[in-house]
């Protein structure tokens, strides 16, 4: 059984390497962004991509849809968008014999990969329409619950600087995103490669590597990957260290964090460290995977106190400091 599992993991690693190579033909550079997005799909989760306009977020999602063989839809979130515009609605239809009956018209959420573009521009009511779909993979319309196609993933984008006319995502919805992915400016060499690749007559095409069934099998295999006790304990230590009411939280966390990550954060770390190990070509996760995934998994699951915001504190910087302290403590032990 162990030999079979090793063979399956190694085969999946080869397939993931091919998928990553296909994605980077169109989404050049930004290897960290590609890894985190692939990790979220492998874990069966959703991702929130935060970056300025023009950094390729839409291009990345479209390329992922092709490479992973998923049926994708895109919704441009605006202040006047209504829940029915995403979920669908029932209309009264008159038959040829004069009879009338309600007919359900499915919305764009009935797909396998939904791009929620500029999700924070929609009203809280419309944002909340995604909550059931993201957690339960189903939607309830007109008193009837309808299952979504599996796998189902939401990749949402958000502009970090233009906040006029936007509605911050509620904590309950942020917690449903497996990871937050910060899309930064490319370095000079990467930007040069982008210029040469995207301003010619033809652009590179990304071939399909996965399909829906293969991805679901990969998600099941990921959950079978063994995780050592040292990694499990490190995940628990890290998550609990950011809860201001926990005995393991330091004075800096208690003075800076209003509320910390819940059990869903630990679950997300448990899955994403396995995904990172797969993408790195390893058979099991290691402590460095926990440290590497801490920031994208935890940063959107905490909030600063008012005084910490006034001081200009940063959750990302705090996570880096606490993980560095944890690394030193692990080395000393």
TrEMBL record:
Q: Where is the ChlI/MoxR AAA lid domain?
A: 251-319
The record's annotation in SUPFAM superfamilies points to:
P-loop containing nucleoside triphosphate hydrolases
Keyword ATP-binding listed? The answer is yes
ATPase AAA-3 domain residues are: 46-179
Q: Which InterPro entries match?
A: ATPase_AAA-3, CbbQ/NirQ/NorQ/GpvN, ChlI/MoxR_AAA_lid, P-loop_NTPase
Where does the record place a coiled coil?
none
Looking at the record's lineage, which domain of life comes first? Bacteria
What Pfam families does this protein map onto?
AAA_3, AAA_lid_2
What GO molecular function terms would the record report?
ATP binding; ATP hydrolysis activity
Q: Which UniProt keywords apply?
A: ATP-binding, Nucleotide-binding
Question: What family classification does the UniProt entry report for this protein?
Answer: Belongs to the MoxR family.
What is this protein identified as? MoxR-like ATPase
């Amino acid at each position: 059984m162990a030999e079979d599992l090793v063979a399956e993991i190694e085969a999946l690693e080869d397939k993931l390497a091919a998928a990553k190579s296909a994605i980077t033909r169109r989404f050049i550079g930004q290897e960290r962004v590609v890894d985190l997005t692939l990790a979220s799909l492998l874990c069966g989760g959703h991702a929130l991509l935060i970056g300025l306009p023009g950094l390729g977020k839409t291009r990345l999602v479209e390329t992922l849809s092709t490479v992973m063989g998923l049926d994708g839809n895109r919704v441009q979130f605006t202040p006047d968008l209504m829940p029915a515009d995403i979920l669908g609605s029932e209309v009264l239809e008159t038959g040829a014999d004069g009879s009338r009956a309600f007919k359900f018209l499915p919305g764009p959420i009935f797909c396998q990969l939904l791009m929620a573009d500029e999700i924070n521009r929609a009203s809280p009511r419309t944002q909340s329409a995604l909550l059931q779909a993201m957690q339960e993979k189903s939607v309830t319309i007109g008193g009837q619950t309808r299952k979504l196609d599996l796998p189902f993933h939401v990749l949402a984008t958000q502009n970090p600087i233009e906040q006029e006319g936007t509605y911050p995502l509620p904590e309950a919805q942020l917690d449903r995103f497996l990871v937050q992915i910060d899309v930064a400016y490319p370095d000079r060499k990467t930007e040069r490669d982008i210029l040469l690749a995207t301003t010619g007559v033809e652009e590179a095409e990304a071939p399909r590597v996965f399909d829906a069934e293969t991805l679901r099998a990969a998600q099941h295999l990921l959950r079978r990957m063994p995780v050592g006790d040292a990694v499990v304990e490190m995940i628990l230590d890290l998550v609990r260290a950011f809860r201001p009411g926990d005995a393991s939280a330091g004075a800096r966390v208690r003075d800076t964090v209003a509320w910390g990550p819940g059990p869903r954060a630990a679950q997300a770390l448990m899955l994403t460290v396995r995904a990172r190990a797969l993408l790195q070509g390893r058979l099991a996760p290691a402590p460095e995977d926990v440290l590497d995934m801490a920031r994208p998994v935890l940063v959107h699951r905490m909030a600063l106190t008012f005084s910490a915001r006034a001081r200009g504190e940063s959750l990302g910087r705090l996570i880096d400091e606490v993980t560095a302290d944890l690394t030193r403590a692990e080395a000393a032990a």
